Amino acid sequence: MTTDTDIRTGDPTGLHRVLDERTVLPQAAQRLDTRRELWSDEVRVRVERLNLDAASFRQLERVHTHDGVTDGDAVRAEVLDIVATRGKMQNPETGSGGMLVGTVEEVGPESPLGLSVGDRVATLVSLTLTPLVIEDGLARWDGRSEQVPCDGYAVLFGRSIAAVIPDDLDPALSLSVMDVCGAPALTARVVEEHVARGARPTVAVIGAAGKSGSLSLAAARAAGAERTIGVVPHQGEHDLLTAAGLADRVAVADARDPVALRDAVTAAGGPADVTVVCVDVPGCEGGAILATADGGTVVFFSMATSFSAAALGAEGLAADVRMLVGNGYVPGHAAYAMELLRSDAGVRALFERRL
């Protein structure tokens, strides 16, 4: 029996994989078609590992933690249910997903991605729009970390992005870097805009000891920032970031407390000309705005950000700041992030510690 999906014309954005009645892009779809058979411009990848984005994993962890103990089996079961129900990994609470590492097992004859069978790749598009089938029940994952050993397959579209994994790096390390590679590239671009106008900006990174935060600090310094301020939530991360040598000043503050965050950044040499928000908890919008000088820029990389809260908060504070949404893609972002990892011992130490 022929269905509407069978006769649907392939589209490089993946519209032909959307099973919703209304026309939406794959990221907004409730369910995707996960059939193995490829349209002519698609690529199928044998999945080795998923990397859940931080906001999604923290939400799953919070829901399934009781009396201070995380129920890893319950976390695993929820991820399996999401993927089975939606045909993709998209946390219904955060709307976010992550990315994956795997080996190319089939390439459609019209694929523009430049991949070959046998290439080990990391996808640079979100799991929220990637058709995904898990075939091993995630049996090797304890449900307690963002990185998820997995056997299954995923499908990339004509407009997807994937990067071949470097031979000189542990695949798990490559995956961690590529998961956040949009953050340092956009941070560098924004800092370079200030430098091109004859200014050397002060850059504050909120959540500075994390993956995207540490790379953003390194990118800001490399792009010509005059001063870098790393903001972390507790003394343990203060000590780690100080040892890494990535920030000129390290401040401890709860980013959800707008006054405490503003005061911490100010005491460290702010307000910031550029504030980069990399934390994976909600409620940090107001503090980031208060910590930024008039005419400055706030870059939101966290998927926990409420963009309505950011817009209305800035309006309510009469804050003359430009606000950017980090969309995860800047041309050359993967290669740039890898270059930072290789060249900056502090960045590499923080990443390897997480593994």
Helix/strand class: alpha/beta
Q: What is the name of the CATH superfamily of the largest domain? A: NAD(P)-binding Rossmann-like Domain
Low-confidence stretches: 1-7
> What would the principal axes of the Cα set say about the shape?
globular
Largest sheet, strands/sense/barrel? 6 strands, antiparallel
- Integer-rounded radius of gyration: 21 Å
The overall average pLDDT, rounded, is: 93
DSSP strand count: 14
> Between the first and last Cα atoms, what is the distance in angstroms?
49 Å
Write the layout of secondary structure elements.
Elements: H1 4-7, E1 43-52, H2 54-63, E2 65-66, E3 69-70, H3 72-86, E4 98-107, E5 120-123, E6 132-134, E7 147-156, E8 162-164, H4 171-178, H5 182-196, E9 202-206, H6 211-223, E10 227-232, H7 235-244, E11 249-252, H8 258-267, E12 272-277, H9 285-290, E13 292-300, H10 307-316, E14 322-325, H11 333-343, H12 345-354
Helix pairs in contact: 5-6, 5-11, 6-12, 7-12, 11-12
